[in-house]
Amino acid sequence: MKIAFFDSGMGGLSVLHHAMKVLPHEEFIFYADEDNVPYGTKSTADVQRFVGEAFDFLLKQDVKAIVVACNTATSVAVAEMRRRYDLPIIGMEPAAKKALDMDGTKRVLVTATPITVKGRKMELLIEKVDKDHLVDRLALPELVTFAERQEFNSPAVTDYLRGELAQFDLSKYSSLVLGCTHFNYFKDTLRELLPDNVQFVDGNEGTVRELIRRLKERNQLEHNPQTVTYFYSGRQVTDVVELERLENCLSRLEKMYRI
User: Fold this and answer.
1) 180 pLDDT more than 90
2) Are residues 83 and 210 in the same domain?
3) Neighbours of 199 (CB within 10 A)
């Protein structure tokens, strides 16, 4: 059986990329809802519908677990998916607690999409973990657009990030939380703009760790040759140009992995 990774677009490849490193004997499906990306600027009802359609498709693909490698989809739809389906469903949430635990005295900047930043799930998370009111939030929707067109490092990206970060005194921060999986593509530009005292934090490692734990519970870890099958909104990707696009994204993520 296969492990499915689902995202609105190319961002979830960052979670798959980590899983491929630590689970070398599993078969993977990656589902990017390219027909409807981005999710972060759409209505909650629309995102819930898109996620439901993706799950209906994935449950027909002989999957043993689904990783919702999208913070936006997790925030508005995972609870309903767990009620609807009886298999491990691993979601993502911005790693604010992890960031606070790393320091506990300096501020933390959580970046995400607008729907995640403003969502009830985020409010509850911050209320639970941010007892000293150290967390600030910043929506960066344009990064999703940049990532989808593979504009990872350009003057436009730098100008956008510099402008958005200008409102914060970054000397007072210990970490920047990458609360959207698309944001991992931009760690080099962010590193140039951030002072050395600011570290990156994301939820990829913890998400994959939880996936492994859940599969071990069910005795479902396997020892097959590693494979990945890609789908765009339910259509298998076979076009050479699109497969090259996916490989380019994974190559970019390998470079960002070291930052």
Assistant:
1) yes
2) yes
3) 15
At 9, which CATH number? 3.40.50.1860
Q: Which of 70, 108, 110, 211 is catalytic?
A: 70
Instruction: Render pLDDT for 55-77 as a digit per residue (tens, 0 to 9).
Output: 999 999 999 999 999 999 999 99
Q: Which of 65, 147, 157, 180 is catalytic?
A: 180
Q: How confident is the model at residue 85 (pLDDT cuts 50, 70, 90)?
A: very high
Q: Could you give the CA distance from residue 66 to residue 28 in angstroms, rounded to a whole number?
A: 10
pLDDT of residue 93: 87
Assess whether 241 and 210 both reside in one domain. yes
Predicted confidence band of residue 167 (pLDDT cuts 50, 70, 90): very high
- Residue where a domain terminates, one of 185, 201, 217: 201
Q: Using a cut of 0.90, tell me whether the model's pTM lies above it.
A: yes
Q: Is 249 a catalytic residue?
A: no
Task: Report how far residue 214's alpha carbon sits from residue 82's, in angstroms, rounded to the nearest whole number.
Answer: 14
Tell me if 204 is assigned to a ligand binding site: no
Range of the domain at 39: 2-92+204-257
Residue 136 annotated as binding site:
no
Place of tokens 């759409």: 42
Q: Is 72 annotated as a binding residue?
A: yes
Q: Is 40 a known ligand-binding residue? A: yes
> Which is nearest to 34 in space by CA: 230, 240, 233?
233
When the pLDDT of each residue in the chain is averaged and rounded to a whole number, the result is 96
